[in-house]
Amino acid sequence: MSSAAETVENASIIAESAAHDGNRLWIGNIDPKITEYHLVKLLEKFGKVKQFDFLFHKSGPLEGQPRGYCFVNFSTREEAERAIQCLNGKLALSKKLVVRWAHAQVRVTR
């Protein structure tokens, strides 16, 4: 059984390797009422979506419910940049979306 730290580290490695094409975005603060379908339709307005990963809780009391974030790959960097500019901070149902490059890491300092 892996620890939470190992799980986070592995997720970071996976996100980093998938982000190498430079067109991968992380979208967070997604309202739980937004479906995969509606999110993909929204993202397709900015360009060709090559890959879309909408994550769900695998276990626990929230099993099967959305985790509140996703990853998306666009065909070109320009499409991804346009999505960031247009969607970051925009209200989607009850929450403001957070859209950034998938490889950007937030460091916590103590």
UniProtKB/TrEMBL annotation:
Positions of transmembrane segments: none
Matches recorded under Pfam families: RRM_1
Q: Which UniProt keywords apply?
A: RNA-binding
Xref: InterPro entries: Nucleotide-bd_a/b_plait_sf, RBD_domain_sf, RBM18_RRM, RRM_dom
Every copy of the RRM domain together lies at: 23-104
Q: What is this protein called?
A: Probable RNA-binding protein 18
Q: Which organism is it from?
A: Ataeniobius toweri
